[in-house]
Design brief:
This protein is mostly helical. It has one domain (5-87): Methane Monooxygenase Hydroxylase, Chain G, domain 1, CATH 1.20.58. The protein contains 3 helices and no strands. Helix 1 packs antiparallel against helix 2. 12% of the residues are buried.
C-alpha cells in the first residue's frame, strides 16, 4: 500500500495507463495476427491492404507511448518483409 498521497495518486495513474496500454497492445497483436494469417493463407492482395493499417496502428501506439519506436520499426519492417516473398 502507498504511504503518501503522491504515491497513492501515482498508483491510480499507473493503473489507468496500464489498462490503456494493454488495450493498445492487444489491438496491435490482433492486427498483426490477422495480417500474418492472410500471408500464410496466400492472400497477398488482402495482406497488402492490411499492411498500411498495421503500420498506422504501430505509429499511433508509439505516439501514445504504449510501444517504443525501435520496437515498432522492427515489427513494421519484418511484416513488410514477410509480405515480399509471398508476392514473388
Amino acid at each position: 500500500m502507498p504511504n503518501t498521497k503522491s504515491a497513492e495518486r501515482r498508483m491510480r495513474n499507473s493503473k489507468r495507463k496500464n489498462l490503456q496500454n494493454s488495450s493498445v497492445k492487444s489491438r496491435l497483436r490482433r492486427m498483426e495476427k490477422q495480417f500474418r494469417a492472410a500471408v500464410a493463407a496466400g492472400k497477398q492482395d488482402e495482406a497488402a491492404k492490411l499492411l498500411p493499417g498495421v503500420h498506422s496502428a504501430f505509429d499511433k501506439a508509439v505516439k501514445v507511448g504504449a510501444v517504443k519506436r525501435p520496437t515498432a520499426n522492427r515489427k513494421k519492417s519484418r511484416l513488410a518483409v514477410s509480405l515480399k516473398p509471398a508476392a514473388k
